[in-house]
């Protein structure tokens, strides 16, 4: 039991503390340039949508107002079996810049993206979603990096506009996302980050890989397939895209469940990246993606093994600390009002329980490429 206890404890510390510190240090030891020269390649902006009547008009108008030469981009929109007014709104706003493709039978986002990428004329493919708002300079900042022929994928920086510090979900998600961005920026400086921000990222058109129909996380799969071919995947903090936190805990839990189910799926699709001969990217993939999703099981193993070895003061103290942490998480769940001391334990447990649910949904085929929307509402 002591072996299991120490294995779990050391791995958890490595995942959440040591890996971020190590990758930060290495990002300066092996720093690669992120700068680029301004140019205006022809862009194809791809937008896959399902029942986005609340967002579609605002999104299309914002794309048409972006600070980028109007003659240097096109917008391709794909409606995946929408049953609301998405198609009607899009058709009403169509002009010579917009190409609209609608399929009656819902197939999932990968199928729509495969179709749009095939129809695109741009040198660069830009991926975005209906809900998020782009900064007016985002596309210029994003695509300037493609002047470097070694860059294959560039991600924008996601910023939450409604990070409510008086709401336990909003505050917790905001803190977690700052932690995650710290790691991603370090990885990008070192060479390549693992994936991209799905709200806005760009790739070279010739590097687009045909997506499996059951794929859940295109924004990780696509950049990683590009890295696999010897190109870099980076992030530019100057390219900003804005989103809203799911202040309703149920909405945030559904989103996280899908993301973590997708991470488990990527272990299958990108498992060859575990090969140490792949270099730093293998270490990153193992530490940041694989170990992150198995931490949920290690937390259970740590708690159970700790109960069975309470013979010394050290193990008793560790058990008391664990019990206190989970008690604070429980109180964070029970109290409707936000109490700051319960904030981190509550969201930590929400996200790790989402990992368990995500694996169950993936294995039971209850989680697939057909995405379910969760509304951004206050709790």
What does this 3D model show about the protein?
- The structure is a single chain.
- This protein is of the alpha/beta class and 379 residues long.
- It is 50% helix and 15% strand.
- The protein is built from eleven helices and eight strands.
- It has an eight-stranded mixed beta sheet, sandwiched between helices.
- α1 packs across α6.
- The protein is globular and about 75 Å long.
- The model has no long low-confidence stretch (mean pLDDT 87).
Write the layout of secondary structure elements.
Elements lengths: L1 H28 L13 E7 L6 H9 L8 E8 L5 H8 L4 E6 L5 H11 L4 E5 L4 E2 L3 H6 L7 E10 L7 H23 L9 E5 L13 H11 L3 E12 L5 H21 L10 H28 L5 H22 L5 H24 L16
Parallel strand pairs: 1-2, 1-4, 2-3, 6-8
Antiparallel strand pairs: 4-7, 5-8, 6-7
Helix pairs in contact: 1-6, 1-9, 2-3, 6-11, 8-11, 9-11, 10-11
């Amino acid at each position: 039991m002591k072996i299991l206890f120490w294995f779990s404890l050391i791995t958890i510390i490595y995942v959440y503390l040591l890996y971020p510190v190590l990758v930060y240090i290495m990002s300066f030891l092996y720093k690669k340039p992120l700068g680029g020269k301004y140019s205006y390649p022809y862009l194809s902006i791809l937008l896959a949508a399902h029942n986005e009547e609340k967002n579609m008009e605002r999104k299309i108008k914002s794309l048409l107002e972006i600070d980028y030469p109007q003659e240097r981009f096109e917008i391709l929109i794909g409606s995946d079996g929408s049953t609301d007014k998405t198609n009607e709104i899009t058709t009403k706003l169509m002009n010579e810049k917009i190409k609209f493709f609608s399929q009656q039978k819902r197939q999932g986002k990968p199928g729509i993206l495969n179709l749009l990428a095939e129809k695109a004329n741009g040198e660069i493919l830009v991926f975005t979603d209906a809900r998020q708002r782009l900064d007016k300079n985002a596309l210029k900042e994003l695509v300037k990096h493609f002047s470097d022929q070694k860059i294959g994928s560039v991600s924008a920086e996601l910023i939450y506009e409604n990070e409510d510090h008086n709401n336990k979900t909003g505050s917790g998600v905001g803190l977690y996302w700052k932690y995650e961005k710290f790691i991603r920026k370090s990885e990008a400086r070192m060479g390549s980050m693992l994936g991209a921000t799905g709200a806005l990222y760009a790739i070279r058109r010739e590097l687009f890989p045909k997506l499996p129909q059951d794929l859940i996380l295109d924004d990780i799969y696509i950049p990683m397939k590009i890295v696999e071919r010897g190109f870099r995947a980076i992030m530019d903090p100057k390219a900003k895209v804005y989103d809203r936190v799911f202040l309703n805990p149920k909405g945030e839990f559904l989103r996280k469940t899908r993301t973590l189910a997708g991470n488990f799926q990527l272990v299958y699709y990108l498992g060859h990246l575990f090969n140490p001969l792949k270099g730093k990217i293998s270490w990153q993939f193992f530490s940041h993606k694989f170990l992150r999703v198995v931490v949920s099981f290690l937390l259970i193993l740590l708690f159970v093994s700790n109960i069975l070895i309470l013979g010394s003061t050290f193990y008793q103290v560790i058990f008391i600390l664990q019990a206190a942490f989970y008690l604070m998480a429980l109180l964070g769940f029970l109290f409707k009002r936000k109490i700051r001391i319960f904030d981190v334990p509550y969201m930590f447990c929400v996200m790790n329980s989402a990992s368990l649910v995500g694996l169950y949904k993936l294995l039971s085929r209850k989680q697939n490429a057909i995405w379910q929307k969760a509304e951004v509402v206050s709790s």
